[in-house]
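INFO batch 0412 | record 1 of 1 | parsing
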Amino acid sequence: MTTYKDIHGTQVEVRSDDPSNPVNGQIWYNTTDLKLRGHTVNPTAAWATGGSLNTAREKITGCGTQTAALAAGGNATSTLKTETELYNGATWTEVNDLNIARKDFSTVGSQTSAIAMAGQASPGHIADVETWDGTSWTEIANVNTARNFTGGAGVSNTAALMFAGNIDASGAQALVENWNGTSWTEVGNVNTARYAIAGVGTNTAALAFGGNGPPGSAIANTEIWNGTAWTELNDLTTVAEGRAGGGTTSAAIGFGGSNNGSSITGKTETWNGTSWTEVNDLTTARYLLGGAGTPIAALAFGGNPPAAGLVNTEEWNEPFDATQEFDLS
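INFO prediction complete | emitting tokens
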């Protein structure tokens, strides 16, 4: 039988405290705490396969966390979808549908309190808004300006921000609207008009990045909202429209995207409050996908290609450096 000493060249160390700088794989017995402990290091973050959506689709939206996410709406081969699904960290479950089939919209909040804003329905742009209470969707007050491909930020169905977007007749928009739980109010515009934009954060502290804007192609611009005005910050490392993400203004993640529907990418970038850093790519390159979570634990699902949409879900987990205890019972 192979022993710990055979593998590591030494016996399990017995000591009265924990080492100050343990190495990966080191095991010791702490006589003070009467605990056997070991140190584990995962030096690289990467995407791993998660449970597949029940309904394949692109132009899907989502919110929540990696282990409690919501996915709604979308499009599959020119068919608008109402389906809503919930993720528990392993599998997706179909629940009550949206009232209005739609695509190219933004959804923010949590698995139990979300809001779906504007988008594209038949026959065109809509201003309709619905809130999710964990069980069903309810139509509420419309936004002031109907549009699609908007970005959004918010953590519940009572406080949300919707920004930018597209109106066919006039193109990319800079308009921003704030929801206070009762009504929509137009607030300060983003600095760069665009659509197919990604957003994270809250209605008083939001981050907007990427999109399609002047001169009519994907852009890398990043802007931060402080509740009053938008300020331009450092750009993404790669231009991208139709990407998804999660997080806050000080710690965010963005993934996927394309440049005018070509150069579809799986690139993933993390934001530290000042700048973006490129990290490991999605396993499946895609854009117009749904996203949820944080830079520590994120979720990517659905998207294009193909036009029929993907069912693929991927889970992102950050590196860790941790001491673990072993049960001796």
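INFO post-check: The chain has a mean pLDDT of 93.
INFO record closed
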